[in-house]
Amino acid sequence: MHKVLLMMLLLTGVNVSAQEIKIVKMDDVVTMIRESKEPIIVNFWATWCAPCVHEIPWFEKHVYADSMPKAKLLLVSLDFQEDVPAKLKAFVKKNHYRSQVVWLSESNADSFCPKIDASWEGAIPASLFVNNATGYRKFYGRQLTEEQFKLELAALVQKK
């Protein structure tokens, strides 16, 4: 029983540490994707983007549906520089996001979008699903419905 309690406390600590928001460049994000040993979903969003904020709760709901996450969810904020870190950090805390949140410190979409997908013109929300072990890669330059996300997550974590 004590081990279970200790494990719960440790897991709670992991969630708290996820509140630290790291400042990144798109090359850092690309490296995180390339080096991911687990399936990864990279969601590009902003606190001021209603469709973005609308879809994140069901992304987290389905990624963390079991005791162990099915995939890694990386939330890449495209918030304005003046909103980082204070507003962004407060927003993440208020919404109890469990996933890793980073802030992209670049504003030239013509430069950073093609590094994720040639079809991405900069609209958000946008999501990239990658499983390096199976070669799976799918990009969406739009909001996903909860049902679309569930289907995509299932395809992402499917074993070859």
List keywords for this structure.
Glutaredoxin, oxidoreductase activity, 160 residues, 6 strands, AhpC/TSA, disordered N terminus, alpha/beta, signal, TlpA family protein disulfide reductase
Task: Give a concise summary.
Helices cover 41% and strands 19% of the residues.
Helices and strands in order, then pairings?
Blueprint: H1 2-17, E1 22-24, H2 26-35, E2 40-45, H3 50-63, E3 72-77, H4 86-94, E4 100-104, H5 109-112, E5 126-131, E6 136-140, H6 146-157
Parallel strand pairs: 1-4, 2-3, 3-4
Antiparallel strand pairs: 2-5, 5-6
Helix pairs in contact: 3-6
Please provide a written account of the structure.
The protein is an alpha/beta fold and 160 residues long. It has one domain: Glutaredoxin. 41% of the residues lie in helices and 19% in strands. The chain has helices at residues 2-17, 26-35, 50-63, 86-94, 109-112, 146-157; strands spanning 22-24, 40-45, 72-77, 100-104, 126-131, 136-140. The chain has a six-stranded mixed sheet, with helices on both faces. Helix 3 (50-63) packs across helix 6. The radius of gyration is 16 Å and the shape is globular. Residues 1-18 have low confidence and may be disordered.
Provide the CATH topology: Glutaredoxin
The average pLDDT is: 89
Strand content: 15-25%
The CATH H-level homologous superfamily: Glutaredoxin
Report the radius of gyration as a whole number of Å: 16 Å
Q: Write out the strand line-up for the largest beta sheet, numbering strands in chain order.
A: 1-4-3-2-5-6
Low-confidence stretches: 1-18
| H and E order | HEHEHEHEHEEH
Give the biggest sheet: 6 strands, mixed
CATH class membership = Alpha Beta
Q: Which of globular, elongated, flat, extended, rod-shaped describes the shape? A: globular
Tally of discrete structural domains? 1
